[in-house]
């Protein structure tokens, strides 16, 4: 757990002592298990120790709309609690067996003589994580603003290439996840990718891509 971003730079106290003070509790969830139902009361932030969860909005008609994916070392729930929400606006479900560490929010932001040694760094790390999440959501909104599937694909791959500093790269999503991320049908996505390859715009194999021209 020393590699978890939330605990970055905290050396004044041992990790076991810190987790004990925070009253952090680890849980293991099976694949496809719901961690939080939409609308459930929440009071803790959650750190994904290992595995992956999917955050989705469930509409009145039962339709599920992707919000984000959260993987090893990343956090969910912090932005909700920092915004003063008492209930989760999203459903959280595992995509594989996943270990999650729950940390009571009130313990996390508590400040006293004991916490003074590490509280500022912990809060700084938390704010940085929330900022990164907001940037990721803004990035996705820029992609989704495009109307056609082709434009969405190219916008997404262009951003990936710029962030990685290379025209040849590997994306983190499976084809199904990529379709969800872009808000398009999987078959239509595969068809458009094939067309773009035939047009000489890009080359791809599974989740490996190369932008041409």
Instruction: Please compute the radius of gyration using only Cα atoms.
Output: 19 Å
Pick out the low-confidence regions: none
Question: What is the number of helical segments per DSSP (H or I, 4+ residues)?
Answer: 7
Q: Could you give the order of the helices and strands?
A: HEEEEEEHEEHHHEHHEE
How many beta strands in the DSSP annotation? 11
What does this protein look like?
This protein has 213 residues and is an alpha+beta fold. The protein is built from 7 helices and 11 strands. It has helices at 15-22, 78-82, 105-108, 119-144, 149-164, 175-182, 186-198; strands at 25-29, 34-36, 44-50, 52-58, 64-71, 75-76, 91-94, 98-104, 168-170, 202-205, 208-211. The strands form 3 sheets. Strands 1-8-3-6 form a 4-stranded antiparallel β-sheet. It has a 4-stranded antiparallel β-sheet with strand order 2-7-4-5, with no helix packed on it. A 3-stranded antiparallel β-sheet has the order 9-11-10. The chain is elongated, with a radius of gyration of 19 Å.
